[in-house]
Amino acid sequence: MTVVTTPRRKPVWAIYKIALSYFMATSRVGPPGSRVIIYIDGFNLYYGVLKFSKDKWLDIEHLFKRLRPHDTIMKIRYFTALSSGGKSADQLAYLKAIETLPLVNVVRGRYKGKSVKCLVRSCAAVDKDRFFTTQEEKRTDVNIAISMLDDAYQDLCDHLIVVSGDSDLVPAVNMVKIRFPLKQVTVYVPSRNPVRGAAVELRAAADKDRDLPLNLLKRAQLPASISDGAGGYITKPATW
Fold first, then answer.
1. Separation of alpha carbons 7 and 11, rounded Å
2. Which of 33, 56, 72, 114 is most buried by a 10 A CB count?
3. Predicted local confidence at residue 138, as pLDDT
4. Is 234 within 8 Å of 226 (Cβ atoms)?
5. 32 cis-preceded (ω within 30 degrees of 0)
């Protein structure tokens, strides 16, 4: 008499466990040791911690290698717009300097003239003359948001680090977290002012939030003179 045995099925939980193990082995998830892309809001960084300091000649690549020693930094995207004022030559020198760094990608927006009414009550000008033109940075928030989502869709990183305190970036952070729940978002807020540094909305949207460590700024400065790769040199501005 021949006995026919039916192969035993693996329990559902065992199949789930195998599938989960495979998924975790083949999927890149957040820190530690994850692939990181850093998104720096240059305007926010400058006015938050650099404007009145002697640390303006900042080596952002060295800074974040010190700050994230266990991560693999894939790219540092620096978002800014070239001002049209008297300091534009200094800013241009800095942008050229950080563009020599292997990991840095400078993304430029633009400044646009904006008519603003003077609200100082003691102003003696007649009402029609109380308007003046100021410069407003444009496209930076949009450029950061698009870059974050594009990098996430291309799976270029596991962990997105945003250097800003601007609440306009909250929708971008939220969308990354909705579409890519395995990717992490960390915010570093650059500020010397507790009120400015509160950044409640952006901090709340991120998985993790930190103050940008000010003690590292002095230890992450570019050389005073840098080769531009074309036979010339980029020199640190005298006032910096």
1. 12
2. 56
3. 56
4. yes
5. yes
Task: Report domain extents, the chain.
Answer: 33-110+139-226
Q: Alpha carbon of 57 to those of 94, 117, 151, 217: distances in Å?
A: 7, 35, 28, 9
Taking the CB of residue 27, how many other CB atoms lie within 10 A of it? 10
User: What residues in the chain have per-residue pLDDT under 70?
Assistant: 1-32, 85-86, 110-138
Chain mean position to CA 208: 14
Q: How many other CB atoms sit within 10 Å of the CB of residue 89?
A: 10
**Position 61, amino acid:** E
CATH code 3.40.50.880 for 33-110+139-226: no
Report the C-alpha gap between 97 and 50 in whole angstroms. Answer: 16
Distance between CA 212 and CA 27 in Å, rounded? 29
Residues 6+ apart with CB under 8 A from 21: none
Answer yes or no: are the C-beta atoms of 44 and 165 closer than 8 Å.
yes
> E strands of 59-143, at which residues?
72-80, 104-108, 110-117, 131-138
The answer to whether the beta carbons of residues 111 and 137 sit under 8 Å apart is: yes
Tokens of 4: 């026919």
**Cα→Cα distances 71→32, 49, 100, 154, 192, Å:** 6, 24, 22, 19, 26
Asked if 183 and 160 count as a contact pair (C-beta separation under 8 A), the reply is yes
Please, how many CA atoms are within 13 Å of residue 83, restricted to the half-sphere of its CB? 15
The pLDDT, as a whole number, for residue 78 is: 98
Pick the closest to residue 140 from 114, 174, 106, 113 (CA basis): 106
